[in-house]
Structures are given as structure tokens and as C-alpha cells.
Amino acid sequence: MTEASTAQGQPARATQWGSGAISHVLPFLVLLVIGLTLPLFAGGYWGVIATRACVYWALVSGLNLLVGFAGQLAIGWVALLTLGAYTTSVLAAGNVLPALDPYLALAIAAMVGAVLGLIIGLPALRLRTFYFAITTLGFATIVTQIALAWASVTGGGVGVPGPVFPPPFDSQWGFYYFCFAIAVVCTWMTMNVAASRFGRALTAIRDAEVAAEACGISKSRLLIAVFLFSGALAGIAGGLFASLQSYITPDAFTIELSVLFFIGVLIGGRGSILGPLLGTILLTVLPEFAAPLVAWSTFLYAVLLLVIVLAIPGGIAELLDFKSRRPLHSDRAIVPRPELLRRLLGEREDRGALTLEQVRLSFGGVRAIDGLDLTILPGQVHGLIGPNGSGKTTTLNVISGYYTPQQGVARLNEVVLTTLAHHARAEMRIARTFQTPRLVGEASVLENVMIGGTIDGQGSFAESLFSLPRHRRDEAKLRESAMLALQTVGLEPLAGVRTDRLQHSELRFIEIARALMLRPAFLLLDEPAAGLSAEEIRRLGALVVAIAQAGTGVLLVEHHADLIFDICHHVTVLNLGKMLAAGTPAEIRSHREVVNAYLGG
Amino acid sequence: MVESIVLSGVAIGCIYALIAIAYNVMFSASRVFSFTAGTLGMVGGILGSLFILRMGLPAWAGFLLALAGGALLGVVTEIVAVRPVLKSLGQHLYVLSTLALALIVQQFAAIEWGTDAQPFPRLLDIARGAFDQQYWLPMLACVVTIVALELLYRHTLVGHAFLAIAEDNYAARALGLPERGLRLASFALAGAIGALAGFAGGQLLLAFFANAPMLTFYGFVPVALGGMGNNRGAIVAGLILGLFQQTANFLVGGIFASVAVFTAFIIVLLAFPDGLAGASAQRRV
Hints:
The complex is a heterodimer of chains A (about 600) and B (about 280).
Chain A (H helix, E strand, L loop, with lengths): L2 H4 L6 H29 L2 H26 L8 H16 L8 H20 L7 H21 L1 H4 L5 E2 L10 H23 L2 H11 L1 H6 L4 H27 L1 E2 L6 H14 L5 H16 L7 H15 L3 H6 L20 H5 L8 E10 L2 E11 L4 E5 L6 H9 L6 E6 L2 E2 L7 H4 L2 E3 L12 H7 L9 H5 L3 H21 L14 H13 L5 E5 L7 H16 L3 E5 L3 H7 L2 E6 L2 E6 L1 H5 L2 H8 L2
Helix pairs in contact in A: 2-8, 3-8, 3-9, 3-11, 3-12, 3-13, 4-5, 4-6, 4-11, 5-11, 9-19, 12-13, 12-14, 19-21, 19-22, 21-22
Chain B lengths: L1 H29 L5 H19 L4 H24 L10 H21 L19 H23 L1 H11 L1 H6 L4 H22 L1 H4 L5 H16 L4 H22 L1 H18 L14
């Protein structure tokens, strides 16, 4: 199914998804077959290399969710490999406690890894990117130093023997299959997460954090889950690594190894599973072909990293993304279908009015909002106009919680909004769009819209990991309502297209579709008509009116006076943070001060 | 004992502070933190040892060449790892590009210079004990750098231009300041300061490739605690860090001192993400 033919408006989605799924899974099946049949055509030495690739992938697959999806630059993830390796080895060897079963030791390593993953990761919730990268690097150094110093447990510089798994996993190929199975499970689990509302939320945190919060995504809760999961996988990888090495010393866990993992993800490309998988295989195998250069391997990895960052930031995944190179139809139009709104929004409880009471907010000496009262009623379009700098967007940001007013409150019915966390507004069914559209460029249009419905999922992160029924039900439901939302705003032919390929006006409508996924009681639109053609503005107006008729209260910040006067029930005019006038469009149009100050007489 | 802790603490603190200043000078010009900051220190130490001990150049020539080498690395950093990714600051690609460059230089040093720590020359055979080169040289370097930077920023036109760029990049460009040239000059300056740190600390840290990641980390601690771009904060925090580290070294031993420093750093940073002297800015939506 080509985009060109779907762009004609033929909703042939079933076949589109079908063929998409096959081409999506095919490379993994090929790798699976190669992996399973490897002993038939590869010698013992390649078995070791392949085992190492599987072990590395167990770690990188988890790190990929953190780096590639969530955009957290955890450079020092080798700390967890170290910890997992020593935990498994020490427990299995019995230096401190009675010797444990290696499987049990491996399971404990996973748990310890999860806990340390959380500890290393937590600063990410508070620190800037570079700060976080440095702290993970610091952790990696510290863990190795502790391994060296704590000789009574770790054997210090002498090291400890790695665990040996009981038959049939004690032979070389036996151990290979053990690691391969774990690698396959890791791939499957991370693919499940990537295709879930959690995976999409991670990319939203990475590329559009503010929009993610507006959709009700709690960054801290989500990242904690990923740190735990990713840490557990790294712990397991550590145990396997120790067994593969058969003897471990602190020297084995260098920063270079950490960089290798990190580069594996980046070579692969952000937001992809296949890319980093191929990247990891490539980085593991490459040194074998360049034996004379083995001393230079880290140097070459670093060069590779630089080249990738500067030349192909999208990595292997982008090189393989043939679909996104086909040209899109240039004469496409956005034709909203407001009649679908009732079906999309459904029956909603009445949540009362959204009010601002005597809100005051100043930045330094500048009074951005100076004693503003505002009431937005369900089912009405409320226009907010005023010259630049009069406090329109600031008002939206007070409602959204990005600014805390020095005085006054915003309420929804009786609930005070101003003290809630940013992401709690979505629970109150307050949705918004942004002056500059904030979307995940690398995700498809459909995925971006699905992000809007994140909070309506029922399944937990763990259920998504194992693709349990509740996860599958969530996904089907989200997909269905996202398609409906796209049809409503008139963009369903573009559902499968990468979002960064679209035009500005289309991005504005995608943001509205994403906001509608919340089934909002109140919708805040920040200059939705900016950059739209006259025809598109007319269609936008009709859509906004229909949204209000379906029961949603709309707060519309806009510069296009015609649009405001055409569709608003009530208009508030701001000037220098104060209300200059308020009333029906007809009253405002004849208000002398407004005409002088703003509309031009 | 106390005397030697204080001396070595202040000396190493001065080195950390100089690296922190190198971070800050680059940051002020570009809003970018560069992983090459510690690498500059490593390069200063190795080049000093290379020119003076191995090639037998006079000390002053070796010193100038080491600083020139650092400045060159600074310029390369700007051209290769910073300028291409400035357009997309939001994607944090600079973290990766500067990390890659730092690793390239570090690995090159490891292979060509060797992975063993090698001796650094004694420049003047004037005194031992408390007035040993490993103590006085870092302190002198730090004081000279601070005074020189103050003079540069307060009393020269170029210095005012640096400040203008640091304050508001766009406005400075709109005024017709050659923003690109000033950025390049800032990176050269930062490179020389970083190399000075490594050269001054040569006797303390030796000419050792692994100083790069060590200085990248410990040099960033004063930046984080003193507040981004705040040189005075960096010096105070650098000295505190040096004294704390040496005291911990003496009390609990090397490795647990590192753990203590790291733990303290994380806790302080989590409590004050914008540094002890910094102010938080509200996010723009």
C-alpha cells in the first residue's frame, strides 16, 4: 500500500497495517533464523563472538529504551554490567555467603541491577543533560574502584571466577543458546514496550517534554520504571558476561566498554529496536575483521560516534527507513469531519466551569498578568485577544501550571489547579495545543496522536513488557480512537507518515487531534490559526465550533480577529496583563478603547 | 600533616578550578559544555613532558608550546564538535560530539604516548617541601589566570565583547559583533587555560592519559556547584573540592575518598541543581 494511493482518501488500513507488520518483523525473523542455526555453519570462535553479541545486546536493549527512546544520556551504564558480573560471580562462588545456584545468583543480580539502575538514574529527574551524563560517568568510575578496593569480596585486582551454569548450558554452544534465548526475550520485551503507550510516552519526554506533561505523562514515574527495567537487564548481562569471560577483574569493565554500548544505540538510531540491534552486532563483530587495529578500536569507535552525530544523526534506522523517502502528495488538503466529534468525545460528565480569580504574575519588574478574572464555560468558545505581550499565552501557562501566579488561583469547578503537578491537568480533562507545535518528529502521525490518550490506558508497564491482554486491549483502543481523531481533523491519509515530513498547518491539526484524545472538558488553543491559509482557517473555525457544541469549553488565544469574532461566544481583551474589555463579539467590536488600542480604527 | 593536606588540597583545588574555568569560558561563548575540558588538562601535562623532558626544549618554550597545543585543541573542538551541532542545541548532540572528540584525543594519547604515567619536569630547582613546584605552580597559575581574566573582561574591548556574547548571543550578533570569531577565540582561550591547568599540575598528576576523564569529572564539579558560567563560584568550589578530597584521602584512603567526593557531589547537586550560587530560571513554554 503506497502513501500515494492512501492519500486519495481510501481507508485501506487493514492491508497497510498487514504489510507494514511483515516488513517490520522480517529482519528480526532473519536474525532469529541465523542465530538459531549458527552452530551449523560457524566455527567455535564465532560462537564466542556471537555469545558476546547476545550478552551485549541484553544490556544494550535496555539501555536503548533509556537513551534511544527517553533521550537520557546515560554514558556510564557499564557500572551496572560490573555490578551484575560481580554479584553473580561472588554469590555463585560463595566467597561471602554459602554458594548459591547460578540461576538464583543471576536473578539476584537482576534485582541488584534494577536498584542500582534506579540510583544512577534518579539524578536525571532533576539535573540537566550534561550534568546527568557526567554523574553516570562518575558512577562507572566509582563502581570499578570499589571492585578493586573491596578485595575480601571481589578478589580485588586478582578477580573472581565467573559462574558456570549447569548442563546443558556448560558447553560453549549450550551457553550460546542460553544467551541467545535471553537476547531474544530482551528483544521481544523491548519491542513490546516500544510499541506501547509507554514507549511513545518516552519519545514524547525526549522530544516534546512540555507536551508530554500536558498529555498527563508523569516523567518521573515513567523513567523510574525504565531505570528499573534497564538496570535489571544490565545486571543479567553482567552475570552472563562474567560466565563468558570465565574470570573477571576490574580491568574488564572500562569506560571504553560503556562507550561501546552507548555508541551501539546511537549508530542504530533513536527510537528504533532493529537499528541498535544491528549496531551492537556490528560493533561486536567489527574488531574481528580489523585484528591489526585492535589497539585502535576505541579510537575508531569514537571516530564512528563523531561521524554519526555529525553526518547521520538518524543512524542505521534512518538509512533503512525506505518508506520515508517516497515523496508525499504535494496537493493534499486538510478536510476535517466535525460530525465525527460526538463519536470521538462520547458522553462526558459535566465538570463545571474553569475560572481564574484575581490572578497576578510578574517576571521581575514586568507585570505579565495583573489581576485577571476569567470564566470559561463548557460548550462555549472563549476568545482571548490582545497585543503581543499582553499576557495571553501567560494566561494559558498559568492554567497549564507552567507558571505559578503570585496571587490568585485557577479553579476547575471547586478544585484549585494552581497547586497541582503539571501532568495532573490531563486527569482533569484539560487539554492544550502550543504556539509552536510540539510533536515527536520521528514518530508517525498516528503515534503522535496516540500519545494524547496515554492516561486512558489501563495496563501497567509490566503488562506491556509481556504483551498481556490488557496491554493489547489498550493499544487497540488507543489506535482506534487515534484514527477517529485523525479522521475528525481530516488527516487520516497521513496516519503512517513520519511527522517531521509534514507541513506546518498539518502539525497544528495533529496537535488538535492529540488534544481531542483526552476527550477534553476544556481545550486551550494557543494561536491555532497562525501560519494557516484562509481556507484552512475557515475549516479550523468550523472544527472549533463543533468541538464546543459537543460540550467542550474552548479557550482560544488568537491574533486573527476575524476568526475570533466569527466563532467566539465571549471575548476577553487583554492589554498589559489587565482586562481591557469583555463581552460578546458584537460588544467588543464596538468597544472604543479596543478599537483604538488593538483593532485599529 | 595538616600542612600537607592543606597544601595539596589547595594545589589540586586550583587545578580543578582552572579546568572549571575552561568549561565556563567555552560555555559562555556557546552554551555548550564540552567533554574535552579534562582532555585539555591531560594534553597540557603530556605536551609539557614531551617538549621539555623528551625533546629537551627550554622550560619557557615547552610551556608556550603546551599552551599553544591546548589552544589548538580548543579551536579544533569548536570547529569539529561544537559549530556543526549549535543549530540543534535542544537535541544535546554536543554531549555526544564533544565526548567523541575527547575519546579520540585520549585514545590517541594512550597509544602514542603510552598508558603509563610519565614524569613531568621540575622547572626551577629552587625549593623543596612546602614550596615544592607541585604546590606553588598550580596556585600561581590559578592566581595569574584569575587576574588576567578579570583584566581581560573588565578593561579590554574584546573582553566586553566576550561578556556581551555570554549575556545575550542574539543581541550581540545584532549589534554586529563577530560572534563566530569570538566563539573561536573563546575556545582557544579555554584550550590554553585547560592546558595551563595540566601543565601546572604536571608534577602532581604526572603526564598521564587517564587524567583526561579524571579532570573532566573533577573539573566539572566546581562548575556544577559554583553555578554555570560563574568563575568566582568555580574557584571557591574548586578549592573546597580539593581540600575535601585531600582530607578524605588522608582520613579514609584513596578509593573511599573518591566515593565520599562523589556521594557529596551528587547529594549537593540534587539539593541545588543550579549550583550553590546559581538561581533557577523558570521554563519558557
